[in-house]
Amino acid sequence: MENTIDIHNTPATQAPPGYTSNLVNPETQQPGLVAAAVVCLSLTTVLVGIDFLQRHTSYARVRIEDYTMVIAQLGFAAFAGVIVTSGTLGQGRHLWDVSIAVAMQVSIFSNISEILYGPTMFCAKFSVLKQMERIFCSARKDHIYWWIQAMIWANALFDLSIFVAFLCACVPREKLWNPLLPGTCISTNGSIIATSVINIISDWAALILPLIVIRKLQMNGNKKIGVMAIFAVGFLACADSIIRLLYSIRLTQTFDLTWAVDFGERF
Taking a C-beta distance cutoff of 8 angstroms, is the pair 120, 75 a contact? Predict the structure, then answer.
């Protein structure tokens, strides 16, 4: 009788020199991931809820960007839920501290989170860009209007392509978590890095556009500085995009994916 591997009790990879596999009580990043998810979800839910309810209570017209922001928030909640659930299974542990079966489960949830990422990001960016359009282009369709339209369509096409790439990463899909199955898979490393690069470009474009427009507005210096400071908060998103790119490159170069993916998804 041929020997079979017990995938539930066999480490996914051999521990590197100086380390020992621990499938019982290994080191994990799950507490930090849960804390980050709770904080981010709480803040965004409160802010999106206040904005949406304010429009209803003030009898202001609820526009398409308000609905897409709510959809983006629901997508983010689903994304965080998938990551936290994956963490309870084994994501956030070193690859040599999880079994082959756990590594297969983590691969499934990791792919689901990647599929959710594109539509969620598009809804969020669409909402922001449509709000900018209403603020700066309410009276005419000038070059600012067409710049915004180009950004919306560019983000739509890119996020759709990323969605399809992760959805069809393997044919059949079961090969994602079982590489022994016959079939074909594409490397998602390029998609991960491309996503980070495009996010940097779109975030900086969305930040620079209102700053240029505000700079030309006829208002006193103090008011202009105050308005520009509000949009300058967008620098935080731009900085985050750069950090994500650096980490994405690092992610494609490591074999300890169950540990690295968990850390990277906090950005």
Answer: yes
pLDDT tens per residue, the chain (267 residues)? 445 777 888 888 888 888 888 888 888 888 888 998 899 899 889 988 887 777 766 656 778 888 899 999 999 999 999 989 988 888 888 888 888 888 888 888 888 988 998 899 899 889 888 888 887 776 677 788 888 899 899 889 988 988 988 888 888 888 888 888 888 888 777 777 877 788 788 878 877 777 777 666 665 665 566 556 556 666 777 777 777 777 777 777 677 777 776 544 444
Residue in this structure with the two tokens 């208002």, named with its chain if needed:
219
Q: Is 122 left (phi over 0), alpha (psi -120 to 50) or beta?
A: alpha
Domain ranges of the chain: 30-264
Give the pTM: 0.80
Gap between the Cα atoms of 161 and 234, Å rounded: 25
Query: How distant, in Å, are the alpha carbons of 17, 81, 150, 195, 261 from that of 37?
Result: 33, 8, 32, 21, 15
Within 8 A by CB and 6+ apart from 138, the residues are none
Residue 210: asked if its preceding bond is cis (omega within 30°), the reply is no
Q: Please tell me the number of Cα atoms within 13 Å of 61 on its side-chain side.
A: 5
